[in-house]
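Note to self: the last two entries modelled the partners one at a time, which told us nothing about the interface. This time every component goes in together.
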Amino acid sequence: MILRLDDIKKYFPVRHGFLQRKMEYVKAVDGVSLAIKRGEIFGLVGESGSGKSTLGYTVVGIHRSTAGKIIFKGEDLATRQHMDVRAISRKLQIVFQDPGSSLNPKRTIRQTLELPLKVHRLGTRRERLGKLRELLQKVELPEEYLHNYPRALSGGQRQRIAIARALAVEPEFIVLDEPTSALDVSVQGKVVRLLLSLAKEHDLTYLFITHDLSLMRNVASRVAIMYLGKLCEVAPTSEFFKNPLHPYTKMLLSSIPVVSEEEESLKPERSVPKGEIPSPVNRPSGCGFRTRCPLAMDICAQEEPRRTLVNEEHEVHCHLFNNSRIKGDYDWND
Amino acid sequence: MTYITHSRLSKSVDTFREVWYKFSKNRLSIVGLLIVLIITILAAFAPYIAPYPAHAGRFVNFPEASQPPGSRHLFGTDVNGRDILSRIIYGYRFSLMMGVFVLALVVPIGVTLGLIAGYFKGTLIDTVLMRITDIFLSIPPLVLALAIASVLTPNLTNAMLAISLSWWPWYTRLVYGLVSSLRNEFFVQAAKATGASTPHILFREILPNCVSPVLTKMSLDMGWVILMGASLSFVGLGVQPPKPGLGSMIADGTQYLPDSWWMVVFPGIAVMIVVLGFNLFGDGIRDLLSEEEA
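The predicted structure of the combined assembly is written out below.
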């Protein structure tokens, strides 16, 4: 177990009303517990507004969690008195969604890549330059690019630079926040392949945030589905696609576009989502998904569904499966 | 080695060509640039260019007093017999000095405050800084500068201080607006996640992205600062006699209107030209920098 999230919450205060006296909270992440194993690629899937990116930012320390524990290699990062971003960033890194915005247009590639090394006081000037060349090699870019500005690079090349920046301090864990969604389809595959080979080479663990289920199918070892700041279902990838349980998961799987009859037959029965994801300020009572769920029952409005373990590795948060609830918790012993 | 030098040189020549192409697309920008260049040269080399350098100071020559424009005195003479052209050239000297000093004082202060307030948006720092800025902005700059200048002893330094005090909030506002959106850019988040210090994020990551709008505002502001300096000088709160201020020359000449019109008209046109020149030049800079962004 490299990373364990224990009931993580991230609320953003919103003031409104006369003289901004009323205080409400956007519950972007509302109690997420996860355990990620060393060396795995953990897929976190959800639609826009599900809180998946916020969770990623909270893990790397860009947001401070409202409540809960982030336990990285046995050390709690979240409840430290002064959360030391610098210490965290050596072990946990992030690659952002849009490489157009994640690289400063006014700084050269060299300046951008050198920053993490400088912050952590790694090496002399000469050693750092060697390290930068090595990094570019790793992401398969020519070293001449060091002196360029991001605008001279294509989207895919920029994302490679962003990956190189994350690798600069030799972290063990990288949060990938939709690393391919801003790229051309032809480039997506190359970037994903690069990420996979880097993971193998450097023994990296990824939290791969995406809304692309078909990508997860090929890449992730386990998949978690998020909806309105909460988890719906967590399962190993093969089981996830073979035996989806949560109505929302089924809905998502049935909406994957396919090209062949064969693929079509693998999909669960088509259920069309009703309406839009509700606002995280005014969550529906009970289960967050009940307003769009075709199988909603009375209890769904009254009680929040608890975690149900279907088998050792497959958990689902839905009242439909409460009867068969197996009492138990994570097995923390890897 | 020679190859590198050569390629760097040709590269910078290329950049210059590109810059000039963008700047010169608007003909008026070139006019502005020419005006700014000529006035700067006039001001810098006033002692060599002015036909009567001595007339810029304490000088009296009553036989030639109040002469209309002619071959000896292109713009005529004032009541003390001093050459108005020479005094205008020296007047530009003080005006440009004022513009440069005011901006040199105002821009670093205003920009830094804007950076800090924008970066800490929503906190107490933001509230305090921006409310102070708002208070200064709510008073018309000329009125504020007049009030401050009249409290202090009237001279050039205090006039510059007075204008500076009423000018910095504009830069704070401008940069505050820019930073409020830049702070959410992912490259700022990335630097933060790396553990970079706040000064690094403010001055190395965010500030370079504010340079274009600030430069544009500076080039446009030069004209306005000079105009305001002339206004202060008009009411006697700027350069003190016998030194020539463009405003005070106009003020002195008003007593002899309409007969000795040249005492007012030429300094007036001089102010107009410098303001116009910097505005056209500023427009050119704006075109240049805004296209660079695209």
